[in-house]
Write a sequence for this structure.
């Protein structure tokens, strides 16, 4: 998330390379439509076929919750297709939902309790959710039990940066908001006791905050400064003493993910500063980061390729996976490209909705678009005044668009899940990568609309998905009617 921030030239103990003039100020950040050489435009996936026990959507338009359902009270029943809720906690949520089983065999959930620092404080204090990152004992998924609140600086406002490295049992985040905050990096140990994580360090090593990434070996944390136009690599080999390795300027990064060996970076690029638009030509950037991984002195990262796609909005993150010896990423855009012509806010519905897509990155210098994961409600012809008038759709920040996606495993995943804000949690069958299809959904809107924003987590053993909605809290959702069997393959 983020279109408003401080343009800050950051200096630190490591080398800084800045690709733009150093300045401090508040700017509006937009992006322009960059169309890749591919036709026709992106199309929606086939609709899910809902089995027994489902409460399907009511309009026939895939992904929509109409204003009439709010007027009649129908929205209170929720909308389910081959899913059912098995556990719930709280009434708010943020951008990440994570799952971990510790050395003692306890399974925990971690989720950020608010979308922005200052929001939901009264609600969370009154209903017992508390502040910061919420820790849930999930040994009994039907009865989530809060065991802790992490309230160190970064955990109070991790924005989109909360991540977990399972190999080392480290939970990390960097302090950040939509306006970019000082990059205080917090590192917790969850391996010994996930129900009560232990703070190992809280340092300014992250420089600036917003989003993040962790190398698969858990030795390098990457802070994405986004509105500060920086990415920062931090050595966390010694988690009690994080050390800033390098700061790269002129990079407007969102989520950062890596190949299994940690030497190739997949960076969701929000765009480049230009004279025509504050940010131009967003897309996916692929970098060689082997010098950082090898701890070369004064390391450099090398851009291998940049790619874009039709209907792009704001690239959020690209989650890697493999299938039959080939490498792919599941890339998701957030919101809509509502600053498409520079600084003019487009509320007409013509702004594109990026949704999600699968990209073949086997050849990092020549990525290839494979397919799109999007709903009918995302299509330009359906973005009518009536649809945009549904509760929660007043502004392009939110509404019927996407925010985060994930896959249950990096090796041969059969399903993908996406939090698609007003359309709730959507589940896709990706066995045929060229022809994905929707197979399930779960949406529990509040009176003001749905706000499914978080990266989903997977409980493969119980055939379930965990996620949070910004205004209705944490959910553990069971896949039914045979859909869950794809998780056990």
């Amino acid at each position: 998330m983020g279109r408003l921030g401080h343009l800050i030239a950051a200096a630190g103990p490591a080398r800084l390379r800045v690709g733009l003039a150093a300045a401090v100020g508040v700017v509006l950040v937009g992006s322009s439509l960059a169309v890749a050489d591919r036709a026709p435009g992106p199309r929606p996936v086939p609709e899910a076929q809902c089995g027994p026990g489902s409460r399907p959507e009511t309009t026939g338009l895939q992904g929509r919750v109409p204003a009439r359902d709010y007027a009649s009270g129908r929205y209170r029943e929720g909308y389910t297709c081959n899913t059912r809720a098995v556990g719930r906690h709280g009434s708010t949520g943020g951008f990440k939902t994570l799952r971990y089983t510790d050395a003692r065999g306890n399974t925990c959930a971690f989720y950020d309790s608010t979308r922005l620092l200052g929001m939901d404080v009264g609600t969370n204090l009154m209903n017992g959710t508390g502040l910061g990152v919420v820790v849930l004992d999930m040994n009994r998924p039907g009865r989530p039990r809060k065991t802790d609140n992490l309230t160190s600086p970064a955990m109070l406002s991790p924005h989109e940066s909360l991540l977990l490295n399972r190999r080392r049992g480290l939970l990390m985040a960097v302090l950040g908001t939509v306006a970019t905050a000082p990059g205080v990096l917090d590192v917790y140990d969850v391996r010994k006791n996930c129900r009560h994580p232990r703070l190992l360090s809280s340092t300014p090593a992250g420089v600036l905050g917003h989003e993040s990434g962790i190398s698969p070996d858990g030795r390098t944390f990457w802070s994405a400064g986004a509105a500060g136009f920086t990415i920062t690599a931090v050595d966390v080999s010694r988690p009690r003493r994080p050390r800033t390795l390098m700061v790269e300027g002129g990079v407007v990064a969102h989520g950062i993910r890596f190949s299994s060996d940690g030497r190739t970076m997949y960076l969701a690029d929000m765009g480049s500063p230009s004279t025509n638009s504050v940010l131009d030509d967003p897309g996916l950037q692929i970098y060689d980061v082997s010098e950082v991984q090898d701890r070369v002195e004064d390391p450099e990262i090398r851009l291998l390729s940049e790619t874009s796609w039709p209907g792009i909005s704001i690239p959020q993150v690209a989650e890697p996976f493999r299938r039959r010896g080939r490498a792919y990423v599941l890339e998701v855009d957030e919101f809509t490209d509502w600053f498409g012509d520079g600084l003019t806010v487009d509320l007409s519905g013509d702004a594109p909705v990026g949704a999600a897509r699968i990209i073949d990155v086997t050849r990092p210098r020549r990525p290839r678009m494979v397919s799109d994961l999007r709903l009918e409600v995302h299509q330009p012809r359906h973005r009518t005044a009536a649809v945009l008038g549904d509760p929660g759709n007043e502004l392009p920040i939110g509404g019927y668009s996407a925010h985060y996606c994930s896959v249950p495993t990096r090796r041969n995943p059969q399903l993908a899940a996406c939090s698609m804000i007003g359309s709730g949690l959507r589940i896709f069958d990706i066995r045929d990568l060229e022809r994905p299809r929707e197979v399930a959904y779960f949406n529990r809107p509040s009176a003001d609309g749905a706000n499914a924003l978080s990266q989903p987590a997977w409980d493969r053993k119980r055939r379930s998905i965990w996620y949070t909605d910004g205004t209705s809290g944490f959910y553990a959702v069971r896949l039914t009617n045979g859909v869950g069997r794809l998780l056990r393959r």
In short: The longest strand covers residues 198-208. The CA atoms of residues 273 and 371 lie 29 Å apart.
